[in-house]
Amino acid sequence: MSSTDALANSSTDSFFPAEKAAHILDHMNEDHADSILNYAHHFARRSAATAARLSGIDQTGMDLVVTEPAGETSVRIAFEKPLTSPEDAHMVLVGMARAARQPAAANPDAATAKARAAIDQLKSGLRTAMLGTASAAGEPDASVVPVVLSADGTLHTYVSEMSAHTKNLRESGRASVMVIEDENTAAQLLARKRLTLRCAAAFIERDTPVFATVMSAMKEKFGPVMQHLEGMTDFHVVQLTPARGRLVCGFGQAFDVDPIDWTKVSHVGGDGQGHGHTARK
């Protein structure tokens, strides 16, 4: 929704010149989506919200469009007192952002719930992932590969012998996998939800139950093309076993993720260290 559309549907009145109000909406939605979501959690008590955008602002408060599992809804948040001038809006919004952020830091249950919701969102849309590998000489490579996820947190991909990443996986036995939120659905492009996993890589022989199970899942997920690729013997199933996981939900919202049970998360402190989860043995 553009700022013009938002203003047409908001409670914005003559207190704000139209250009000023449009600037506030655009700036907040483009650069401070995390703060708007915190407004929804704290002031509107919408703890299940996964995204929010500012749709209007006037002398007495602001309007948000909040995304929850059940869909979008409009909410009104009143200012503590009416603004005396349009220039007051900046400091009031900053102060409210600080107030909304503090309870999140002090409430680990809410932070954990948000992290788990982000993981569920990433898992539900998981079809491909970014794969980072390096050659024996240290030459890096980045690619996109199909993936299927097992109940124990391991991932499997199907890769061509001709690809640089396949050679790198054989040489190093390691990879970094990133699952990231779609740009088209992200509230803030620079703070997209993403899960990065440091993995050990192992090639799976064709005549094994694991290979058959993975190919069945691949065909269900990707359709007829996998029926064709399954018979190509220069393609290989590779098992990617996470040793460490790191989830980013937004600016300043990073969590260590248990490599076996992704529902177990721990907030990463200011020193960059998590609290409580160790690597998979």
From TrEMBL:
GO terms for molecular function: coenzyme F420 binding; oxidoreductase activity, acting on the CH-CH group of donors. It comes from the Bacteria. Keywords: Oxidoreductase. InterPro entries: DUF2470 (IPR019595), F420H2_bilvrd_red/Heme_oxyg (IPR052019), Haem_oxidase_HugZ-like_sf (IPR037119), Pyridox_Oxase_N (IPR011576), Split_barrel_FMN-bd (IPR012349). This is DUF2470 domain-containing protein. Residues 22-96 form the DUF2470 domain. GO terms for cellular component: cytosol. Residues 117-249 form the Pyridoxamine 5'-phosphate oxidase N-terminal domain.
